[in-house]
Amino acid sequence: EAQVTQNPRYLITVTGKKLTVTCSQNMNHEYMSWYRQDPGLGLRQIYYSMNVEVTDKGDVPEGYKVSRKEKRNFPLILESPSPNQTSLYFCASSAQQGSNTEAFFGQGTRLTVV
Amino acid sequence: GNSVTQMEGPVTLSEEAFLTINCTYTATGYPSLFWYVQYPGEGLQLLLKATKADDKGSNKGFEATYRKETTSFHLEKGSVQVSDSAVYFCALRKGGGNKLTFGTGTQLKVEL
């Protein structure tokens, strides 16, 4: 079954404690990205990756890092989380074929930073 | 830059009512347009899409027509069910790219 898997689904952490949210896809997709979803703002792109070792900033990259060492994995790293990063995070992947390709989303990670 | 504007929710309807969720966009060129649906506790799923002007996307009784003259992609369904209760996102993707630009989402609640 084609899927994007995120872990954990829920996370409560304290300010400043480094954390990583993992994302893995089994569709051999080149393109992966991270979004955050906030009330009244919709989904905003944090970082994206066009392929292995190729990453770039999205619209709201401050406070986040990513890596793409393998095609299937695209972890999101918060080196020093702050309360304003409390949000619902989604990982997505799609084939690198242009504008018609469907994006597949993970189930989301609800992060609370206290 | 690109942007998507959706009608604000929540929208509450009775079962079998007609649904319209408005969506307009701003973009240069000819973007592809999408509707995604998010059921409670789940990720986003593609509901339908249209890639050029006058295309109609349809799925599960939902329809949306790509109107370039009004830069709109309104979502419609003739008879909603309780199981349609979800958050609906309109989105666009510029030609040749993979980035999706989303609207703010519209929550739909369907009651018996």
Describe this structure in words.
The complex is a heterodimer of chains A (114) and B (112). Chain A has 114 residues and is mainly β. Helices cover 0% and strands 50% of the residues of chain A. Chain A has strands at 4-7, 10-13, 19-25, 31-38, 42-51, 54-57, 65-66, 76-78, 87-94, 104-105, 109-113. In chain A, the strands form two sheets. In chain A, strands 2, 4, 5, 6, 9, 10 and 11 form a seven-stranded mixed beta sheet that branches. Chain A has a four-stranded antiparallel beta sheet with strand order 1-3-8-7, with no helix packed on it. Chain A is globular, with a radius of gyration of 13 Å. The mean pLDDT of chain A is 93. Chain B is mostly beta strands and 112 residues long. Helix content of chain B is 0%, strand content 51%. Chain B is built from no helices and twelve strands. In chain B, β7 (56-59) and β8 form a beta hairpin. The model of chain B has no long low-confidence stretch (mean pLDDT 93). Chains A and B meet through β4, β5 and β9 of A and β6 of B.
